[in-house]
UniProtKB/TrEMBL annotation, chains A, B:
Gene Ontology molecular function, alphabetical: isocitrate dehydrogenase (NAD+) activity
Keyword Oxidoreductase among UniProt keywords: yes
Protein known as: 3-isopropylmalate dehydrogenase
Source organism phylogeny: Archaea, Methanobacteriati, Methanobacteriota, Stenosarchaea group, Halobacteria
A GO biological process held by the record: isocitrate metabolic process
Alphabetically ordered keywords of this record: Oxidoreductase
Family membership: Belongs to the isocitrate and isopropylmalate dehydrogenases family.
Residue ranges annotated for the Isopropylmalate dehydrogenase-like domain, each copy included: 4-321
Length: 326, 326
């Protein structure tokens, strides 16, 4: 069976790093690629940042690889997460040997709730002066995330996971989140520890090795994983996976980098590692591992794009990764 | 006129660092101190973490100096902020020469909205499965914060301020916040730049000198200022001020430090600098400046408590600060 992978380069450097990752996927597997549009450019043309056709493709493919979108990022990425019915956003933040990092010992994985919290999309203008947003937390979504987290740490032989939240203030909603997550973990015999999201922000700077896998509500995961990106040297190297029950969406955490877009010097590593996560998701564990190792090896002593202080092109780096795959 | 200062040591090291700061205040001014209870200990005794009497005292004094509370922190500090009708939480995060910091060049001030956002306190259990929290943002609170921010940067000759928010997702609420803040600044001729709160988390790690004064909604200010604390070496040195129209509440950002409480070795610097902010709030600018300078000088080459690698006591450090005040 040939899996169908939808490929959405999007805007800016998305158009450079996604083809790079596709060439890596082509080298290790036999997939059917379907390209689709999304982002600022297609919005300028058609009035829609995420054409219905793209949404439908993502909603039916086995997996989707997305690059980046500019101003329309939220209009593209949030519906795409819904298209694949993604309930968890997996965000590894790991420093690579040989790459400058504020905290080179950082090796974290965020498991971010991906459907609710402040992202549920209920906002109201109640008066000239006052607007509200309804933050939603359900036990069912929290439990689904927790089951995933338990599988995740068991598969990878972690000791357990941390739960980051703000239940001292959001007692009912984050209290529900925390209780549901901890209770699933208890039932499964998986260890957890709790940390307030503000305390996490301080403590992860002081010593990131205190944490491994961090389970958090949607916005907490957004901010804390970006903080971890700062500790490993920026968004440039961070992959992510939006996992649903039947399909998934993979994307580098970085944006469109308008300052360098079109110059052919974007660092493709984050997208290639996102492709490695895609391979693993589809069950190609060996291929995924091989791609990760190749990227890591190139980061350590191969050609470097300008963001890492080198003068190699996207193509040079991709070529080096392909070579080390053999 | 002798100003009345309510003093609430609270729990843990609050009982050690607050008296230290009081002795500094006594050395530079003529104040009437009234001591009041709050925290875990008084809750254990009376069932109330914040006795009505303490609330009333804070609500009528010129200023309040609070130490820390343990498990009951939220039950104490949130109502105390209300007691002084505080609309802004001022949180400087500055690295001190001679003190280990992940980013020694950090010198930031967070101006955190202090009345609404997710802290408005509206949560509901709508079903067995689902709870909601109503996040509240008003133009009036945002404008009041913005006016304060404009005064703040004008008084201190900053170029302008940054506005951190998540208006790409919370379009109505954070959109309202951003629009209100930017529009006040525009009217006042104060420059602003905008940054998404997640992007801020990455960027402040990579280069904290990109930012000076950062205006943010309540929870964003909570998390981002704690992140900045991580960059300057921990919560141990961070002061804060909760400013209202007629009175204010000052507190170190750190907690009760149960591991060292009672040993007389807590670092009093954050509380003494909070007292300096109190002096400045009451109009004693020279005295405030002198206290800051004395603390900074002791941090640079004076006795150090164990958290900074020394073996001095709270008293030794306080004594050194008092000496350098003369
Ligand atoms: C673009 C934006 C809507 C998105 C989010 O908030 O989830 C981004 O910050 C991310 O983390 O993928
Ligand atoms: C104790 C807690 C309620 C409080 C807050 O969230 O504001 C604390 O984290 C702070 O920043 O002062």
């Amino acid at each position: 069976m040939t899996e169908e992978i939808v490929v959405i380069p999007g805007d800016g450097i998305g158009r450079e790093v996604v083809p790079a990752a596709v060439s890596v996927l082509e080298a290790v597997g036999d997939f059917e690629f379907v390209e689709a549009d999304a982002g600022d450019a297609v919005e300028a043309e058609t009035g829609e940042a995420l054409p219905a056709e793209t949404y439908e493709l993502a909603a039916s493919a086995d997996a989707t690889l997305f690059g980046a979108a500019g101003e329309t990022a939220a209009d593209v990425i949030l519906p795409l997460r819904t298209a694949v019915d993604s309930f968890v956003n997996v965000r590894p933040a790991k420093a690579y040997p040989g790459v400058d990092a504020l905290r080179p010992e950082t090796d974290l994985v965020f498991l971010r709730e991906n459907t609710e919290g402040v992202y549920a999309g209920h906002e109201d203008r109640l008066s000239e002066d006052l607007s509200t947003l309804t933050r939603v937390v359900t036990t069912s979504a929290s439990e689904r995330l927790a089951e995933f987290a338990c599988d995740y740490v068991e598969d990878r032989a972690y000791d357990g996971f941390s739960v980051a939240h703000k239940a001292n203030v959001m007692r009912e909603t984050d209290g529900r989140f925390r209780d549901a997550v901890v209770s699933v973990a208890d039932d499964r015999g998986v260890e957890t520890d709790e940390v307030l999201m503000d305390a996490f922000a301080t403590r992860v700077c002081l010593d990131p090795t205190q944490f491994d896998v961090v389970v958090c509500p949607n916005l907490a995961g957004d901010v804390l994983s970006d903080l971890a990106a700062g500790l490993v040297g920026g968004l440039g190297l961070l992959p992510s996976a939006n996992i649903g029950p039947d399909r998934a969406l993979f994307e580098p955490v970085h944006g469109t980098a308008p300052d360098i877009a079109g110059e052919g010097v974007a660092n493709p590593s984050a997208t290639i590692v996102s492709a490695a996560m895609l391979l693993e998701y589809l069950g190609y564990d060996d291929e995924g591992r091989a791609v990760r190792d190749a990227v890591e090896s190139v980061l350590a002593d191969g050609p470097r794009t300008p963001d890492l202080g080198g003068d190699a092109s996207t193509e040079d780096v991709t070529h080096a990764v392909l070579e080390r795959l053999d």
